[in-house]
Design brief:
Blueprint lengths: L13 E2 L11 E4 L5 H11 L3 E6 L21 H4 L5 E5 L5 H12 L3 E4 L5 H4 L4 H5 L6 E6 L13 H7 L20 H24 L4 E5 H8 L1 H10 L16 E4 L6 E4 L3 H10 L14 H6 L1 H12 L4 H10 L4 E3 L3 H10 L5 E5 L20 E5 L11 E2 L10 H4 L12
Parallel strand pairs: 1-13, 2-3, 2-5, 3-4, 5-6, 6-7
Antiparallel strand pairs: 8-9, 9-10, 11-12
Length: 420
C-alpha cells in the first residue's frame, strides 16, 4: 500500500504535548527491548508517563535492525511501531560508569521495566533486591519468557512460546501442520499484562507508600489468554486440536467462501441463526432438528457448512456482509490490513495518527531556510484507549539511539559524554 492509500489521520488524542496525560509526572526507566516490554512502556508513555529508554551503545534495541519493512529513512518500522513518546539514552551497563548513570536514572524513577534473561540485572547490581532498600517506592517490573526459576535459561521468543505453550496446537487446519499467529501475539498480551501489573502496583503504592516487584512471563500470559481452550482442559480434561477457522463450541462461527472472497460468520445464538437462515433464503434450516440449537449445530457442523456454503457462493462477501449485518447477523469480509485501517476510519475508530518530528533550528526539515518543505511527521498507529478527560498524547516520535543521553543526564555533575 502506497502512502497515498493510507487513511487520513483520525485526529484521536492530543498531539504536540497539549494538555496533561493521565500519567503525567510518572517517570519510567525502561530497560526493555524488542516487543513485550516496549509495547507496555509505549502505552504508558502515550498516557503521559515520561519513559526513558536505556539502550546499548552502538546497537541499541535489536528491533532497530529488524527490517524490511523500513520507513523512508531506512528505519525499521518494527522499532518505530512500539517506541514513540520515549527518550533514548545509550548506556554501557558492562562498565561502572554506565551502571552509575543507570542508578542515577532509577533514583529519579517511579517504575523500572526490564526483560533481560532472569539473573542479568542481579549480576549488574541492578536487581530488585539491590534496589529495594534504597528505593522502597520503586515499582520493579520484570518480563521473562518462562519465569525466573525453572525456565530462567530458556530464551523468551514469541514463536517458541506459541509452540511450547499450546497456541500452535490449536491454530491451523485440522489436517495441516500447527502454525503461529500472524503477529507476535504472546508478546503483545504479555505487554498488556505488564501494564496492568504496573498500574496495580502503583495503586498499591499510592495507598501504602510501598513499591513492589511485578513479574509477568510470556508462558504464563499465554496460558491465561487461552481462556476457553485452557478452561476446557482445566475443568473437563479436554485437550483441543486444530479446527482451522471453526470454533470448538459455536457454529456457524468460521469463514466461508463466497463469489469473490472469504466471509466470516460469527453466529453466537439461536436468534441470529434464524435470521441467517432467512437472509440466505432457507428458513427451514432453523427448524431442522440438527440445527435448531447451538449444540446441535456444533454436532452437525459439516452438514451445516455444506448447506450454508452453497448459498453463500451465489454472491460476494460485501453483499452478504451488508445484508446480514442489516438483519442482525455478525458477518464481515476477511480484510487485508489496508482495508482494515480504512474500515476503522469509516467507523470513526482510532487508526493512523501523525507524530510531529523535531526539525533543525533553521525551521526546515531539509536544512533549507525558505520554509517550503512540509513539517516532517512519523505516522503511527493510534493508542487504542479513549479517555474523555485525559486522552492519549503523541508528543515525541520514536527516538534515535542515544538521542537524549545528554538531556537526561544534564543535571548529573561531570556527565558530558553522549554515551557511558
Amino acid at each position: 500500500m502506497s502512502s497515498k492509500d493510507v487513511p487520513p489521520d483520525d485526529g484521536s488524542g492530543a498531539v504536540g504535548g497539549a494538555g496533561r496525560g493521565a500519567l503525567a509526572g510518572l517517570r519510567i526507566a525502561d530497560f526493555s527491548r524488542v516487543l513485550a516490554g516496549p509495547y507496555a512502556t509505549m502505552l504508558l508513555a502515550d498516557l503521559g508517563a515520561d519513559v526513558v529508554k536505556v539502550e546499548r551503545p552502538g546497537t541499541g534495541d535489536e528491533t532497530r535492525e529488524w527490517r524490511p519493512p523500513a520507513d523512508e529513512n531506512g528505519t525499521s518500522t518494527y522499532f518505530l511501531g512500539v517506541n514513540r513518546n520515549k527518550r533514548s539514552v545509550a548506556l554501557d551497563l558492562t562498565n561502572e560508569t554506565g551502571r552509575e548513570r543507570a542508578r542515577a536514572l532509577i533514583a529519579e524513577s517511579d517504575v523500572l521495566v526490564e526483560n533481560f534473561r532472569p539473573g542479568t540485572m542481579d549480576r549488574l547490581g541492578l536487581g530488585y533486591a539491590d534496589l529495594r532498600a534504597r528505593h522502597p517506592r520503586l515499582v520493579y517490573c520484570s518480563v521473562s519468557g518462562f519465569g525466573a526459576d525453572g525456565g530462567a535459561a530458556i530464551p523468551g521468543y514469541d514463536l517458541l512460546v506459541q509452540a511450547v505453550g499450546g497456541l500452535m496446537s490449536v491454530t491451523g487446519e485440522a489436517d495441516g501442520e500447527p502454525v503461529k499467529t500472524g503477529v507476535a501475539l504472546v508478546d503483545v498480551i504479555t505487554g498488556l499484562h505488564a501494564t496492568l501489573g504496573i498500574m496495580a502496583a502503583l495503586r498499591h503504592r499510592d495507598a501504602t507508600g510501598e513499591g513492589q516487584r511485578v513479574e509477568v512471563s510470556l508462558l504464563g500470559s499465554l496460558l491465561s489468554a487461552m481462556v476457553n481452550q485452557a478452561s476446557g482442559y482445566a475443568l473437563a480434561g479436554v485437550v483441543p486440536g486444530r479446527l482451522g477457522n471453526a470454533h470448538p463450541s459455536i457454529a456457524p462461527y468460521e469463514t466461508f467462501p463466497t463469489a469473490d472472497r472469504p466471509l466470516a460468520l460469527a453466529v453466537g445464538n439461536d436468534g441470529q441463526f434464524v435470521a441467517l437462515a432467512a437472509v440466505l433464503g432457507c428458513p427451514g434450516l432453523a427448524d431442522d432438528d440438527r440445527f435448531r440449537t447451538n449444540p446441535g449445530r456444533v454436532a452437525h457442523r459439516a452438514e451445516l457448512r455444506k448447506l450454508l456454503g452453497e448459498r453463500l457462493l451465489t454472491a460476494g462477501a460485501d453483499h452478504w456482509s451488508a445484508t446480514l449485518l442489516a438483519a442482525g447477523v455478525p458477518a464481515g469480509p476477511v480484510n487485508t490490513l489496508d482495508e482494515a485501517f480504512a474500515f476503522a476510519h469509516r467507523l470513526g475508530l482510532p487508526g493512523i495518527v501523525s507524530v510531529p518530528v523535531p526539525v533543525p533550528v533553521d525551521g526546515s526539515a531539509d536544512g533549507s531556510t525558505d520554509g517550503s518543505a512540509p513539517a516532517p511527521v512519523s505516522r503511527q498507529v493510534a493508542h487504542p484507549i479513549a479517555l474523555s478527560e485525559s486522552p492519549a498524547q503523541y508528543r515525541l516520535p520514536p527516538p534515535g539511539l542515544g538521542e537524549h543521553t545528554a538531556e537526561v543526564f544534564r543535571r548529573t555533575a561531570g556527565d558530558t559524554p553522549e554515551t557511558a
